[in-house]
Amino acid sequence: PVAVTSTAPVINISLSLIPAVTIAASPTPICSGSPVTFTATPINGGTTPVYQWQLNGSIVGTNSNSYTSNSLVNGDIVRVTMTSSETCASPSTVTSTAPAVTITPSVTPAVSIAVSTTTICSGTPVTFIATPINGGSTPVYKWQVNGVNVGTNSRTYTSTSLVNGDIVSVIMTSNIVCAISNQATNSFTIVIDPQKCPNGFYMPTGFTPNKDGRNDVLKPLIFGNVIYYRFSIYNRWGQKIFETNDLQKGWDGKLSGTDTDTNVFVWLCTFQFQGKAIETRKGTAVLIR
Q1: Using CA atoms, how far apart are residues 210 and 165, in angstroms rounded to an integer?
Q2: Which letter, b or e, does each residue of 32-41 get, where b requires 16 or more Cβ atoms within 10 Å of its Cβ?
Q3: Contact, 222 vs 229, CB < 8 A?
Q4: Helix H or strand E encompassing 255
């Protein structure tokens, strides 16, 4: 007899793989009524793992690695079961852990405005203070007068130039989590009662236009509800070199854009308080360089 030997194919033994799956929620915290997405992350899931999502033990969602809901409540249990497509997965099906869902209630930001004085008078400072509700740790403030941005990102805004009927508003942007809307607005309408406000006129005897932010312009300080105003400056020869009817503007010591030297100038101011007769004041002031 003739002896023969068979071929001997190499036997490949694959090690068993242990599948696992975890889930993560986004965004967090989970806000009441807002959509939250749970995403599954497989380990040894193979190329085509199969997912089955459950909410409190009931099947929800689709065969997807994510599940989204906007109707969760406190204590809900979300889990996913994954069936691995790996050949040697053992076991082939695994389930994620499922901590109870914690819902953060939604809140509504608001802002109120307080005023530093009960009587607002023309030309006198008045400060507005914003008080946030559900503003978060670092709310942002934007102040407006008649819809125009003023002030800075601060809880307070101060002005000396408000007039009757002006509307002071604050827009607060909250950074609190789970805010229904992150902005809140409030407004205050200026009411100036001339009967409650003192009338007064003061004119400095000199000014120093050196751009240091102090006493840089020459103008009168008038307290009261002014309904007419004109302020003029004259040089030693009687020539008018400056004029304005704006209570907030003054002479900066320039003539045709050029600084004038130290000298004495004549001023003339005509004004009228509400309910009073027209008044005219005049005098001299020294420009100091």
Answers
A1: 36
A2: beeebebebe
A3: yes
A4: strand 254-255
